[in-house]
Design a protein that fits this description.
Layout: H1 2-15, H2 22-87
Length: about 90
């Protein structure tokens, strides 16, 4: 409902009807600017949400990879320690 009022306001501004005063035109333009900024902000927020999700997925993958690499290094160190004990 409010949107219809704004759209009518915009149509009047675009058509340039003479019976509207300057104050109404300024209010209409301010509302248009506000709606545009809110829409842009929502789009940017959604984009950032997607990027954060991708970063989290990458972090999970890297965490698993680090754990795997740590286990390989630990096994390698254990093998080296066993070899040293056998040679002594």
């Amino acid at each position: 409902m409010a949107r219809d009022g704004i759209m009518n306001h915009l149509n009047i501004i675009c058509v340039g009807e003479n019976n509207m005063d300057l104050k109404d035109k300024i209010v209409g333009l301010a509302l248009v600017a506000l709606i545009t900024l809110v829409g842009w902000n929502l789009k940017e927020t959604w984009t950032m949400k997607e990027e954060v999700f991708k970063l989290k997925q990458g972090q999970i993958f890297l965490s698993k990879q680090i754990k795997k690499n740590n286990n390989i290094v630990k096994r390698s160190i254990k093998k080296q320690n066993k070899k040293k004990k056998k040679s002594n």
